[in-house]
Every structure is written in C-alpha cells, then in structure tokens.
Amino acid sequence: MGNLHGLHRSHHAGETSNAHFPPSLAPPSSSSPSRPHMTTVEPYCHVDSSLRSLAGKAEGFGRAAVGGLSGPICRVTSLADEGPGSLREACKRPDPLWIVFDVSGTINLSSFVNVSSHKTVDGRGQRVKITGKGLRLKQCENVIICNLEFEGGVGPDADAIQIKPKSSNIWIDRCSLKNYHDGLIDITRESTDITVSRCHFMNHNKTMLIGADESHVTDRCIRVTIHHCFFDGTRQRHPRVRFAKIHLYNNYTRHWAIYAVGAGVESQIYSQCNIYEAGEKKTVFKYITEKAGDKEKPEAGFIRSEGDWLLNGAKSCLSHNGERHVFSPTQHYSEWTVESPTEKLKNFMKHSTGWQNLPLPPDQTTSTA
C-alpha cells in the first residue's frame, strides 16, 4: 500500500527538528531552497496494472473501499442524462458493479445521480465530464469514484460530489473538480471512513466542507484522509471542518483567497508535510469558534502541523494550546505514502493530479452486466 517513511512516528506537532525524521526526509523550513536530489514517491504505483487493482488500495480512512469488486463490468454507452446505457441507470442498480465508459464527452445532469452501494465509477480509458449537477452518495457503502471531470454545477445545492448521510468506505481518486455553485466535495451527516486522493480542485470558492453544521453533533464520527491533492487557487475550505478527524498529507494548496484550512467546532486536523503557498492572503490555518449543539460554551477546533512547508510569506497562525487534543493517524492505520515537501513534489502535484489520459486496464474476469 505504498511506502511508509516513518514520519507518522513523530508526536511533536509543528516541530521541524531533524531528530524526528529520517535524514533524507527532514522537512524544509519556509526559507530553505529546493533539494533536487530528493525523489518523489508516487502513491498507488500499481493500481492501474489491472482493472480491479483499485479495490481496497486507498490509503488512510477509506482503505476498506472495494467498490464493485465482486460484481460484473457495466458499460456506460450513452451520454444521456437517463435511460438505457446511461450513468444514472448504472448507478442506481442495487447489485455490485464495476462501471466503465465506452464513450467520451459531457453528461449534463438535471438532478443528482444517486450512487448505490458497492459501485466503482471508473473513468479510465475515456474523458467524461459531469456538469449541471453531481454525484450523490446517500446511505451507501463501498464506493470508488476515479478519473472523472466535474465542471459547471448549477443551483444552490449543486455539489460535484455530495456524501451524505451515513455513507462509509468511500474513495474519491484522481478527479478534476471546478466551478460548482455550492461545494466541490461535501462530506456530512455521519458519513465516514473516506479518502480523497490525487484530485485537482480549481476555480471555486467553498471547496470542501466536512461536517454539516454545529447542531449535527453526530458528525463526531467522521474520519477523512486527504492526500496528494492540488488545491489550485480555490478561495477557501481546503477543507473546512466541524467535529471530524482529518489527516492531510502531501497536498499542495496555493493562492487561496481567504484561508487554507478551517478548524471549526471540535475538529481535529493533522496536517503533515503539506505545501502551503500563499498569494495575497497569508493565513494558512483558521480557527472558527462555534458552539456544539449539546455544549454550553463555543470553541474552535484543534490543529497539529508537522513538517508543513510554508511559502511566499504564508503564516500558519497556529495555536499550540490544543495540539495535544489532535488524534494520531497511527491510532487508525499503520501505513501511508508520505515524503518531505519539496519542489519536486510540488511539480508532481501540478501534473499528476486530476483526470489523467489513461487506458482502461484489462480485467481478469470477462463477465459483463
């Protein structure tokens, strides 16, 4: 499941002493030059070797997501909003399916497509763009969505990918997302054990919300891993969190317009070896004070920053008082692919996130739905 470099063994938040890192992986300071001798470690090197190699390979909290591993291949043959051969028709079927596309182009949705449990929506081999509305993961489990584009969602509730309520074991990988009226990815209402990886976010305001609002105290169960994502000039919410436990690592966030990461009520954010490159606005971590629905006093969340690289005058604005309240990923999983943030990692993120022009890998089975 990728390469484990031992960085997770450090329990000293925000500390950049090389004593807590292998010598080749010591985090750079905000003023240190790039080190071209360091190599970039690509996560998920083998998931494209065969069609179903994605199943169960997510790092982090979404690692149990197997999608439609046990089901036959289902082919989307139409770009229509609905009807035979459409994406909507495939996603609503109750049985496990590995959904692939025989067509490239734009699917203009008039309403959310509800993705049922045990589905893989696999965009490899084609270039498929979803617009109008997005995908909704509602009370489902074991879903993988990969290699799709989302652009131009319309309406006050238009999210590209909406995960609510009570959905679990989800992996969103290698998608390009931009310009929806509401969020790009929203994770709320007790949805948990989710990984978002290798995605490219751009041209958007409220990028990613995790945790519905301060009244939804049952969102304390939410756990999300976000890694190797490129937040490319999006304004805020990378992510914005309430109640949840969030592990961020090896993401590249640049030129935000308000703040990079927002820690609302009771949230626990473990930010590890990310690159934060400021534009005009410099605040990386913003603490947002709110009152939980079952508490008397308002409070913000908690953040631990470890090995993060702050560029172009970015200011962490960390409060160190609450670092001891932040969870350790090792309490939940033992392996993840992480490396020190460098110029090489930054360039990797620019070119290797979002939709990729990949062939559809061969399947070892021949069954087709």
From TrEMBL:
<dbReference type="Pfam" id="PF00544">
    <property type="entry name" value="Pectate_lyase_4"/>
</dbReference>
<keyword id="KW-0456">Lyase</keyword>
<comment type="pathway">
    <text>Glycan metabolism; pectin degradation; 2-dehydro-3-deoxy-D-gluconate from pectin: step 2/5.</text>
</comment>
<dbReference type="GO" id="GO:0046872">
    <property type="term" value="F:metal ion binding"/>
</dbReference>
<feature type="domain" description="Pectate lyase">
    <location>
        <begin position="84"/>
        <end position="282"/>
    </location>
</feature>
<feature type="region of interest" description="Disordered">
    <location>
        <begin position="1"/>
        <end position="41"/>
    </location>
</feature>
<keyword id="KW-0106">Calcium</keyword>
<dbReference type="InterPro" id="IPR012334">
    <property type="entry name" value="Pectin_lyas_fold"/>
</dbReference>
<dbReference type="InterPro" id="IPR011050">
    <property type="entry name" value="Pectin_lyase_fold/virulence"/>
</dbReference>
<dbReference type="InterPro" id="IPR018082">
    <property type="entry name" value="AmbAllergen"/>
</dbReference>
<feature type="compositionally biased region" description="Basic residues">
    <location>
        <begin position="1"/>
        <end position="11"/>
    </location>
</feature>
<keyword id="KW-0732">Signal</keyword>
<dbReference type="GO" id="GO:0045490">
    <property type="term" value="P:pectin catabolic process"/>
</dbReference>
<dbReference type="InterPro" id="IPR045032">
    <property type="entry name" value="PEL"/>
</dbReference>
<keyword id="KW-0479">Metal-binding</keyword>
<dbReference type="GO" id="GO:0030570">
    <property type="term" value="F:pectate lyase activity"/>
</dbReference>
<feature type="compositionally biased region" description="Low complexity">
    <location>
        <begin position="27"/>
        <end position="36"/>
    </location>
</feature>
<dbReference type="InterPro" id="IPR002022">
    <property type="entry name" value="Pec_lyase"/>
</dbReference>
<comment type="similarity">
    <text>Belongs to the polysaccharide lyase 1 family.</text>
</comment>
<protein>
    <recommendedName>
        <fullName>Pectate lyase</fullName>
        <ecNumber>4.2.2.2</ecNumber>
    </recommendedName>
</protein>
